[in-house]
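Duplicate of #3305? Posting structure anyway:
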């Protein structure tokens, strides 16, 4: 749905999520999310570019931080250098922000997927229809899926999900993650398939 169609929405906080990539198949992306007084999380805008140019990423982060009054963010878990670059940027809008890499380790990605899926299940996750990059994000969600690996486990297919990854990192920054992850409990969860209905603007990130 369109954010502006909701009337006077009181935003209480927000976060950026940054995924780093430098090939045509793996884009660099910056997602700007906001949370309103009702606990709903809105994806307002998603920037994407090929090449992995750090200066362009910092510029995009600065512009989105200023546009949506955001003060914190998470980067790709493997990009601690990028997090340091952002933190040490002379850009005044970036200087006031707190950046750190997203959580890594066993279960970290599944925890992020669970956070977003929980928001969707509770009807608290929305994509701003009018936001730049919104339709590209929706198309990524439509094809986001799991496949069985050589060990017989259902794992996320890591292709064409750079915008989704940035959203996941921003949600982690907004909601936080538990210090421990109950892997055994997670294994008992049955995958849920969500399909787009006419007019639907968001769907589950776990399929």
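Output from current build:
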């Amino acid at each position: 749905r369109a954010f502006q169609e909701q009337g006077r929405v009181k935003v209480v906080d927000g976060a950026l999520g940054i995924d780093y990539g430098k090939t045509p198949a793996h884009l660099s992306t910056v997602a700007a999310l906001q949370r309103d007084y009702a606990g709903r999380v809105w994806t307002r805008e998603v920037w994407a570019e090929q090449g992995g140019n750090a200066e362009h990423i910092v510029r995009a982060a600065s512009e989105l931080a200023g546009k949506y009054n955001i003060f914190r963010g998470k980067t790709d878990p493997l990009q601690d250098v990028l997090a340091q670059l952002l933190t040490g940027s002379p850009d005044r809008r970036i200087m006031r922000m707190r950046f750190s890499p997203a959580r890594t380790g066993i279960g970290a990605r599944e925890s992020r997927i669970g956070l977003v899926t929980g928001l969707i299940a509770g009807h608290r996750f929305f994509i701003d229809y009018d936001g730049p990059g919104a339709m590209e994000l929706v198309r990524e969600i439509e094809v986001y899926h799991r496949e069985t690996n050589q060990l017989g486990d259902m794992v996320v297919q890591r292709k064409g999900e750079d915008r989704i990854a940035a959203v996941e990192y921003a949600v982690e920054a907004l909601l936080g993650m538990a210090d421990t992850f109950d892997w055994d409990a997670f294994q008992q969860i049955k995958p849920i398939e969500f399909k787009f209905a006419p007019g639907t603007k968001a769907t589950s990130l776990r399929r």
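Confirmed duplicate; merging threads. The chain has a mean pLDDT of 77. The first helix runs from residue 54 to 68.
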